[in-house]
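Re: weekly structure request thread

Next one in the queue (556 aa):
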Amino acid sequence: MSEKFKNSSFQVRLPLFLGLALAVGILIGANGFRPSGNNPQGTAKSYLKFRDILSYIDRDYVDTVNVEELSDFAINKMLEKLDPHTAYIPASEMDVARSYLEGDFDGIGVEFNIFKDTVYIVAPLSGGPSEAVGLQAGDKIIKVDGKTIAGNGITTQGVFERLRGSKGTKVNLTILRRNEKKPMDFTVTRNKIPTVSVETGYMVDNRTGYIKVTRFSANTYDEFKSTLVKLKKKGMDRLILDLRGNPGGYMDRATRMADEFISGNKKIVYTDGKGTKYDNETYAHVRGEFEDGPVIVLIDEGSASASEIVSGALQDNDRALIVGRRSFGKGLVQMPIPLNDGSELRLTISRYFTPSGRSIQKPYTEGMENYEMDILNRFQRGEFFHPDSIKFNDSLKYKTLHGRIVYGGGGIMPDVFVARDTMEVSNYLNELYSKNLVREFALTYFQDHKAELQKMPFEKFKATFEVSDRMLDAINKEAKDLKIKYNDTEFKRSKNLLKNNIKAYIARSVYGPEGLYPIFHETDPDFQQALKLFDQANKLNKGYVQLGINKFRVEN
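Done, posted below.
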């Protein structure tokens, strides 16, 4: 796990508003009360009423109360009456909220994992301050600035609070290193650490490129463009763009990415708000790096917001074949409004629409709880396994540039459905992951065989390395030590997937993300089906399309 925040109430709601299609450049100062132009008398009256109640509570209530907490609570309850993506972020959480969308943060630069109540360094980030002082993969951080963090229930958030800090400040780490008898002390000077949103880009074969984009942050477009150019130089003439699990981010980074594929001045997205103040239309306007050549976009139920802008624009312009499962359905645009105390209101000010006119936003009129349960409800309805469980409303029927039928009303429905593959997933495997055992086992194996592994070229590793039964026996023994009950039936069911995952994580330690994904993809059904669909993608790219939705469908 890299230095990412989790475990707060903000994180619980993160998938619902991390993917905010931010109207970049629109900022409103909140310096004092300003009545609404639409209903000045009503807003002024409500403002005075709230002010009076808060004043009475602070002055006369029988017990001492924290009026700031009461105010925050009232604000959050009020916003729940609007939509699921309008959000209030307290000042104390603003740094974390920004870090998801900004291009970098201040820290020591390590990827870490928590295992058995201990923080392990998975890898020091290349060129970062931790690498510079000599921290290594597998080091256990036992103290930070003299205070013990091992064995006391440390959380990911707790690690962040101790390791992050302003650029130029120092943090003292005490670590235990394998084969070293005594603890070792390091002083690390914090610096700017770049966050990466294009997790990997590699050549699958001599003509097929693959790019994985995890979110749309400040640097995403530049990272994407650089990776695209690099792969073209290696001979790429067809591409798989992976937006699965991508919750979104900056809208303009998404439209610039789409523009790399769409020729001429075709429409990419438009927004429609109250009146015309926040209405906007975005068109392709640059000569893109990959305007010709088949493109397949992978999406799933975790693809939201900016991911849906890209996939919707490419689908409506018949520029890419969309493969996977129906996307999240987040089509509301938020504007960040800074408040006087350092907190921020992210207010929905418009909806966005694909070029054909589809609103991607799924319904939210039945309340926040129902909205948050939507993905689980899809699973229970069988939508992840059978596309026929999705009912389309004929009143929301639209046509792509060349006449294919697509539907609005909630997310992007792929052109080719691929059912979620759960054949090899078991409760036993999930238990191994819940205890971080798979990642930790792979890291330990890498440490024990580091010299020989680092001499091996990746292609040789990929072709010849095998996870042995002896290794599996060892991981099962560790699982038993962690009180994970062994289940032979479930183990046999998950055995091949477990072997693949262990091998992939070992490759991650040796070769980085470029080693991880090519091995993961060997058991990835969405990816494997995509490789078989370039004929359809090429026909689509050349304008040879057949009318109707989901003409090509794959079920496992």
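The chain has 21 helices and 21 strands. The domain at 208-217+237-417 is CATH 3.90.226 (2-enoyl-CoA Hydratase; Chain A, domain 1).
Next request, please.
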